[in-house]
């Protein structure tokens, strides 16, 4: 008989310890260690043990004909874009997102569309009763869809029920933290139970060929809760992002064995559920404040899709000993780098100013091509000079102050021209990649200094900078002249 093994397992990262301690040394979280019986996690169950020898299997070479994995389109173009064209047979997807972001709404719509198309779709909820799921379906106008519902948390009962009859094409488990299995002796939601339950469901998916979607909770940092080994076990990890106060949501692939990981799907939350947004640029630019200093339009690329988004910057004099640097939707390290380049090579002194940068619409930008747009917005806010409303910016800034080219220049310009923009500020070395049919006036910049001087020449002094004791009126920047703060010493 196996001896019970008790250990303390971190409920955030899955690290195990022999004794309790307040802080997890692996992830740094406090009060996350819980006592668990890990006998089932370390010892193979009796039903699986066998004294027979292993069976022989055939080894194949790298060369040969391989068929593409058949896919099942979900009926939602934005969801299929992120998954790579649809659900692959026998695949397991993990979907994570903040509470109330719309995960259950999205999956209810996906299962309803598949059921209406004649496929067997099963929705199993461990958090809600069947009546609650029906109320959501009625609100979305999907009550007539032949989706099979259940409220169950036992993995053995779920597998036995789904094994009867025709194999389901899509199974939704909402959520994996509520599932439990008899093979381990731990409470539902613990690291051991989440790992064992996920393994049992993955084994059923590979054996039956059904596609399974697991819904996962997230931590306060936005990471999917539970052991990271679950993310390695599944075939795809999807992150559902967005602000609860805003109407649109972004579905992003963090991991995908059957498709790209740089595609995004954009949805708008309405009273009838999530509506697909085929042109995200119009949504992100729908409420632009034209003519305001500190705003610049960035022409970005998300996967294969060009997306135009507005960058908003605010530079204000600080009253603190250490100025604040706040960023929403962009990498804070890149903002620090851009500020350092502006001060070192362009003479822009921002050590006495608070700097705030925001990506309008809640989109999170990950590519370095937004450096030029961020720098233009910062300088525009500092000198109170509105940027041209019909211009887009893109380009990577190096530590030497040079503007480096970025990929897919033609796609960015084509999207900007389609939305009515008339000019583009881009790296000088990227002009050769653009054909004569761009339809835009191209303003190329080789270095950041020339762009800063051009914006500063149009600047006007702000009202709170006139006639103070620290900054006399005669030292204020004049119109159509480069302010003194931008002129390096010795010039």
UniProtKB/TrEMBL annotation:
Top-rank taxon, per record: Bacteria
Gene3D superfamilies: 3.30.230.10, P-loop containing nucleotide triphosphate hydrolases (3.40.50.300)
Region (Disordered): 456-491
CDD domains, alphabetized: RadA_SMS_N
UniProt KW keywords: ATP-binding, DNA damage, DNA repair, DNA-binding, Hydrolase, Metal-binding, Nucleotide-binding, Stress response, Zinc, Zinc-finger
Gene Ontology cellular component list: cytosol
BP terms from Gene Ontology: recombinational repair
Chain intervals with Basic and acidic residues compositional bias: 468-478
Pfam families (alphabetical): AAA_25, ChlI, Zn_ribbon_LapB
Segments forming domain RecA family profile: 68-218
GO terms of molecular function: ATP binding; ATP-dependent DNA damage sensor activity; damaged DNA binding; hydrolase activity; zinc ion binding
Motif position, RadA KNRFG motif: 255-259
Ranges for region Lon-protease-like: 354-491
Binding site for ATP: 97-104
Domain notes per entry: The middle region has homology to RecA with ATPase motifs including the RadA KNRFG motif, while the C-terminus is homologous to Lon protease.
Role this protein plays: Plays a role in repairing double-strand DNA breaks, probably involving stabilizing or processing branched DNA or blocked replication forks.
Family classification: Belongs to the RecA family. RadA subfamily.
Protein name: DNA repair protein RadA
Organism field: Bradyrhizobium canariense
């Amino acid at each position: 008989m196996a001896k019970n093994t008790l250990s303390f397992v971190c409920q955030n990262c899955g690290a195990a310890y022999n004794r309790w301690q307040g802080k997890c040394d692996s992830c740094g979280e406090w009060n996350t260690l819980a006592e668990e019986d890990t006998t089932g996690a370390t010892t193979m169950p009796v039903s699986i043990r066998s004294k027979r020898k292993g069976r022989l299997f055939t080894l194949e070479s790298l060369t040969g004909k391989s068929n593409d994995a058949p896919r099942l389109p979900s009926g939602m173009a934005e969801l299929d874009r992120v998954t790579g064209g649809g659900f692959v047979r026998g695949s397991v997807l993990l979907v994570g997102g903040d509470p109330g972001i719309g995960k259950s709404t999205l999956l209810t719509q996906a299962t309803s569309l598949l059921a209406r198309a004649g496929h067997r779709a099963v929705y199993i909820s461990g958090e809600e009763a069947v009546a609650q799921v029906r109320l959501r379906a009625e609100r979305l106008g999907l009550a007539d869809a032949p989706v099979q519902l259940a409220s169950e948390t036992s993995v053995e009962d779920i597998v036995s029920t789904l094994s009867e009859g025709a194999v389901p094409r899509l199974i939704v488990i909402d959520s994996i933290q509520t599932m439990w299995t008899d093979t381990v002796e731990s409470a539902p939601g613990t690291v051991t139970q989440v790992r064992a339950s996920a393994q049992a469901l993955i084994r059923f998916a590979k054996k039956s060929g059904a596609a399974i979607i697991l819904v996962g909770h997230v931590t306060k940092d936005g990471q999917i809760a539970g052991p990271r080994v679950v993310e390695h076990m599944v075939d795809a990890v999807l992150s559902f992002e967005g602000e609860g106060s805003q109407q649109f949501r972004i579905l992003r692939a963090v991991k995908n064995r059957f498709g790209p990981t740089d595609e995004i799907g954009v949805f708008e939350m309405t009273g009838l559920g999530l509506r697909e947004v085929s042109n995200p640029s119009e949504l992100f630019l729908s409420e632009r404040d034209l003519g305001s200093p500190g705003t610049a339009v960035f022409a970005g690329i998300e996967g294969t899709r060009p997306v135009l988004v507005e960058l908003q910057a605010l530079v204000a004099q600080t009253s603190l000993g250490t100025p604040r640097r706040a960023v929403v939707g962009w990498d804070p390290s890149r903002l620090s780098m851009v500020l350092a380049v502006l001060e070192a090579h362009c003479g822009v002194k921002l050590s006495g100013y608070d700097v705030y940068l925001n990506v309008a619409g809640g989109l999170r930008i990950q590519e370095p091509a937004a450096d030029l747009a961020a720098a233009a917005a910062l300088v525009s806010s500092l000198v109170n000079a509105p940027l041209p409303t019909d211009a887009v910016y893109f380009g990577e800034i190096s530590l030497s102050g040079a503007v480096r080219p970025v990929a897919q220049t033609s796609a960015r310009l084509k999207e900007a021209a389609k939305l009515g923009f008339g000019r583009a500020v881009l790296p000088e070395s990227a002009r050769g990649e653009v054909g004569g049919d761009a339809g835009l006036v191209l303003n190329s910049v080789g270095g950041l200094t020339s762009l800063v001087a051009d914006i500063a020449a149009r600047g006007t002094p702000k009202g709170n900078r006139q006639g103070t004791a620290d900054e006399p009126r005669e030292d204020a920047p004049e119109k159509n002249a480069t302010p003194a703060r931008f002129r390096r010493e010795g010039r």
